[in-house]
Amino acid sequence: PCWACMIIQDMFAAATDTTYTTMEWTMAELINHPRVMQKLQDEIRAAVNGAGHVTEDHLGTLRYLRAVIRETLRLHAPLPLLLPRETLEDTELLGYRVPARTRVVINAWAIGRDPATWERAEEFVPERFVDDPAEYGAGHDDFRAVPFGAGRRGCPGVGFAVPSMELALAGLLYHFDWEPPLAAGGAASKLDLSELFGISVRLKTALHVVAKPWSP
């Protein structure tokens, strides 16, 4: 096999695809929740404060942006089924016997929407993460949502993916005001957030929005 081709394929499937899918879900949720978008834009524009553009130096102060992305990852894990694992020895989990060499598939999509764990589990509520000290990453001990996996087999690209998403989204939200397209009769339409299942979970319909340039 062509190992270089396989590595490039992994980069596109595990990095590029999941990153832009998460950004698309974030913008779709913000369009459908204009109060959240306005609050986030106010935070970003106050942090930039006349600098002209968003830089990595601003990201550390954007707490609400991190909360918005974490909430998006909770509701819309880019890989709904994490890469399969295999047990090394016989074990028992929640009363079930799991033999050694059993292939285990983790449903990250269901974990993030578990009503036993999350209040208003199906709703987009970034405020739940504003004062939450946990990080995005795969190395933490918070298993309520695992979009990057967890433990030693967690996603190694989290340290690159997260700043990339934060910087791109902050730039889009700083420079533009965003609105849904107008429906018949001139009323603003609500975006359809139906999911299209695959290796990654995407919007079923294409994301069409209206961007209006903004300047301080």
TrEMBL record:
Annotated membrane topology: Single-pass membrane protein
Gene Ontology molecular function: any one: heme binding
Keywords of the record: Heme, Iron, Membrane, Metal-binding, Monooxygenase, Oxidoreductase, Transmembrane, Transmembrane helix
Domain of life: Eukaryota
A GO CC term attached to the entry: membrane
Cofactor(s) it depends on: heme
Intracellular or extracellular location(s): Membrane
Binding site for heme: 155
Keyword Disulfide bond (UniProt): no
Family, per entry: Belongs to the cytochrome P450 family.
Name the UniProt record assigns to this protein: Cytochrome P450 71A1
